[in-house]
């Protein structure tokens, strides 16, 4: 899962860590030179402004020639100024200050890696901003490895975008008045029906009963498709003739659940998005007639940017509460998984990770970030 992205993130970590290590070595050399120079002015005082005066009066000229035999003039120029002092002071406490120029090349590569992994542009920008903010001006303690520092920055940046809007789905089911009605929306072929079946099983595992209602009255064969799942799982299916009113089917599902003490109604809908008016009209009617507790958008991780765009369109048309992202097992890029929550402001709640009924994972942002960064 998301192997391509994992590899790219790992390259960024190596490159950024290498840059910082090189920087650390350079600072070590500078600071050693500065320290030696200090030692020669034997009467140096302990007060910080005395250190300032010492350093700015260019005491390193002699020592510069010791480090770099024929570069004393250039070394002298570079050694002056507050940046050098700050870094030398940081070295004295065992730290390295990271600056913009140290990260420029790795950050550019990271941006390319994210975009080529189908991460949406605004999400990639946000990730870069966070990494920059976390690392720049950061003083790396010598006890901390640079890889740790880079990994932490990347961890925080990814978590920031991935965890947008998260809520505890199970708790919401537990606390809601029963029956809880959940309507599923999304285009055909992405795994919507399978996800409904998987969620029914997921709920069953946690002690909640459910009934399936096929509000996809538009597509020929939709009833048969969902019936297969209902029979395999031994769940009740409410279905009407093709061409019937989707809101009426889901309403019947709710009535059945009320009459039979069923906890959750899982309602499929026809996922066409020819015009958002079609969808709006359909979902508005469902809203009016059954007032669902949640509307979940389903799409496939392998669709990458297209899935992100559709998530945005469906959310604009029908105010979704969250996303079920299917076929994560077959997705290498990870772009949709990283982008959808940030773009819609609504959380990814579940990942589909295979074709079996048990192949549904509660989406855990922290777990995903750890997986992407290889920290199992
Ligand atoms: P729908 O038209 O959106 O209802 O799509 P279906 O539920 O019929 O699924 C379409 C195909 O995708 C089927 O072959 C499913 O087995 C497959 N599928 C659904 N979810 C997943 C998943 O998480 N991983 C994989 N690998 N395949 C999936």
Characterise this structure.
The protein is α/β, with parallel strands linked by helices and 376 residues long. The protein folds into 2 domains: 3-45 and 69-162, SRP54, nucleotide-binding domain (Four Helix Bundle (Hemerythrin (Met), subunit A)); 169-363, P-loop containing nucleotide triphosphate hydrolases (Rossmann fold, 3-Layer(aba) Sandwich). The protein has helices at 3-40, 48-56, 61-67, 72-79, 82-92, 100-116, 121-135, 146-162, 169-175, 192-205, 222-233, 246-260, 276-290, 305-318, 335-344, 365-372, and strands at 95-97, 139-141, 180-185, 210-215, 237-238, 264-269, 294-300, 322-326, 348-352, 360-362. It has an 8-stranded mixed beta sheet, sandwiched between helices. The longest helix has 38 residues, at 3-40. The two termini are 13 Å apart. Residues 47-78 have low confidence and may be disordered. The structure holds guanosine-5'-diphosphate. Residues 188-194, 225, 326-327, 329-330, 352-355, 359 line the site of guanosine-5'-diphosphate.
Gist of the model:
The protein is built from 16 helices and 10 strands. The chain has helices at residues 3-40, 48-56, 61-67, 72-79, 82-92, 100-116, 121-135, 146-162, 169-175, 192-205, 222-233, 246-260, 276-290, 305-318, 335-344, 365-372, and strands spanning 95-97, 139-141, 180-185, 210-215, 237-238, 264-269, 294-300, 322-326, 348-352, 360-362.
């Amino acid at each position: 899962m998301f192997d391509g992205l994992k590899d790219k993130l790992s390259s960024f970590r190596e490159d950024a860590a290498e840059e910082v290590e090189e920087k650390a070595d350079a600072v070590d050399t500078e600071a050693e030179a500065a320290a030696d120079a200090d030692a020669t002015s034997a009467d140096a005082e302990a007060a910080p402004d005395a250190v300032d005066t010492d350093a700015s009066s260019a005491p390193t000229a002699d020592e510069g020639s010791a480090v770099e035999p024929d570069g004393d003039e250039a070394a002298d120029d570079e050694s002056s100024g507050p940046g050098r002092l700050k870094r030398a002071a940081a070295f004295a406490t065992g730290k390295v200050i990271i600056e913009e120029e140290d990260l420029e090349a790795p950050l550019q590569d990271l941006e390319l890696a994210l975009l080529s992994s189908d991460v949406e542009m605004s999400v990639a920008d946000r990730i870069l901003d966070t990494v920059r903010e976390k690392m720049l001006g950061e003083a790396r303690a010598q006890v901390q490895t640079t890889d740790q520092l880079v990994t932490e920055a990347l961890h925080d940046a990814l978590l920031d975008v991935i965890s947008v809007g998260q809520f505890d789905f199970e708790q919401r089911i537990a606390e809601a008045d029963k029956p809880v009605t959940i309507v599923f929306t999304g285009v055909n072929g992405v795994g919507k029906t399978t996800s409904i079946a998987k969620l029914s099983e997921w709920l069953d595992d946690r002690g909640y009963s459910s009934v399936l209602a096929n509000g996809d009255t538009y597509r020929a064969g939709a009833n048969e498709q969902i019936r297969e799942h209902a029979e395999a799982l031994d769940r009740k299916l409410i279905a009407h003739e093709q061409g019937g009113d989707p809101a009426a089917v889901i309403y019947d599902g709710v009535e059945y659940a009320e009459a039979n003490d069923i906890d959750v109604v899982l309602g499929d809908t026809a996922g066409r998005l020819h015009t958002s008016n079609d969808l709006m009209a359909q979902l508005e009617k469902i809203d009016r007639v059954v007032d669902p507790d949640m509307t979940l958008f389903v799409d496939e991780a392998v669709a990458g940017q297209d899935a992100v765009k559709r998530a945005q369109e469906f959310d604009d048309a029908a105010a979704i509460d969250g996303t079920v992202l299917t076929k994560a097992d077959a997705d290498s890029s990870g772009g949709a998984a990283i982008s959808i929550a940030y773009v819609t402001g609504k959380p990814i709640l579940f990942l589909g990770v295979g074709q079996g009924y048990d192949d549904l994972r509660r989406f855990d942002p922290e777990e995903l970030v750890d997986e992407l960064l290889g920290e199992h």
